[in-house]
Amino acid sequence: MGCPGGRRKKHASKKGSTHLAKQVKGKRRTKDHDQIHDDLKVEAAQELLNQQTDYDKTGEAQHYCLTCARYFQDEKTLKAHFRTKLHKRRLKALQTAPYSQAEAEAAAGMGSYHPPAKVDVQTQPLKTDTQRIDD
Questions:
Q1: Which residues, 6+ apart, have CB-to-CB distance to 44 below 8 Å?
Q2: pLDDT tens, 9-19?
């Protein structure tokens, strides 16, 4: 016989499945916005865009999107990625300056608060585009 009102008891097998959700959440974690702002600085950006060949990474680490922190198989796929909603949303999110300790103190009442400044973030040029400009 079932429970009154059609309610069921929780099964023991479903009880311990929460630890799997935590593992999957951390598996696909991307870089935070402040880490990407650090990568957008000239020295770090040049280093990431001109990486040595690494056969363990997608596309041998030759096609990298700075704003999304992702590797792509070839230049065609990278170019298609630049037109996606995911990339455009990331560009829009990166337009605000990263959160700083001075801003946290001002919000807590230890100074005058100034809203975060806007940062001009654009899609990186492709390697073939820069080669055409140099020629």
A1: 38
A2: 555 555 556 66
State whether residue 56 is helix, strand or coil.
coil
Q: Using CA atoms, how far apart are residues 19 and 15, in angstroms rounded to an integer? A: 10
User: Looking up tokens 């069921």, which residue turns up?
Assistant: 8
End-to-end CA distance of the chain: 82
Q: Structure tokens of 113? A: 């608060």
What DSSP string describes 17-64? Answer: THHHHHHHHHHT----HHHHHHHTSHHHHHHHHTPPP-TTSGGGG-SE
Is 128 within 8 Å of 75 (Cβ atoms)? yes
Contacts 24+ apart (CB under 8 A), 31-34: 31/69, 33/93, 33/94, 33/98, 34/98, 34/99
Alpha carbons 17 and 84: distance in angstroms, whole number: 34
Average pLDDT over residues 113-121: 81
By C-alpha distance, which of 70, 72, 49, 47 is closest to 59? 72
Contact status, residue 71 vs residue 58, Cβ threshold 8 Å: yes
